[in-house]
Amino acid sequence: MPSVTEVDPTLPARFPPITVQHILNCQFSEWHKLFASLTLKSKALPLTEDFVDYLNQDGLFLPLDSNGLPQPHYEHPTDSDHNSDGEEDDQEWKKEFEHLNAAGGADESTETSDTEDDQNIPHFPDLETSISSAIEELGGAVFPKLNWSSPKDASWIALSGTLKCTNAADVFLLLKSSDFVMHDLSQAFEHCYVGEGRVEDLPKRPETFELVLRKWYELSPSMEFRCFVRDGRLIGL
């Protein structure tokens, strides 16, 4: 058997260097049009730059709903005792605040600050309406992803412990909490081959992003397989 140094260098490598175009070819919208009849029913929604900026912002917070109001709170149904304690704490805080206000010990700064915070919370009514329509079209439950990645690293933050989403707030929460999604947003081409070019010339991100909503199914991870295909041939499983 010839050693590595004896292999003809003019022969193509079995796994050539990954380029930006290779990564772009793996976007959902690129391959789905070829295999739509063989995969889960899905809906792709274009994302505005305002929404991309929201995902890139520091902190975990949800945008206002389609009516311009705060998203409903996420309360686990088994946490009734905890919620009860929380309500008591809220009542105690309210009484203390009223006492301070009556005594002249509180000013309008708290209320003003809350108002300013509300004004800074983003609002995406068109996207939320599109998400709600897509969820209904896909049977009432979906799992989300961006061009490449799903937020499976953030499933811990969902009440169900899965990527199952039944409303727009579920989708926003998972996307905003995911490092995988952040990688799509800013590091998708990080390790691409540049040839004789400079690493600095690599694009930082694709020109556009899309939110992909896929019909939810209870799939067993043990039945998932990753296949490797080259030139139309299955070369690995």
Automatic annotation (TrEMBL):
Residues 73-85 have a biased composition (Basic and acidic residues). Residues 66-126 are annotated as: Disordered. GO terms for cellular component: cytoplasm. InterPro entries: CDC123. Residues 108-119 have a biased composition (Acidic residues). It holds the Pfam family D123. Belongs to the CDC123 family. PANTHER family: CELL DIVISION CYCLE PROTEIN 123 HOMOLOG, D123 PROTEIN. This is Cell division cycle protein 123 homolog.
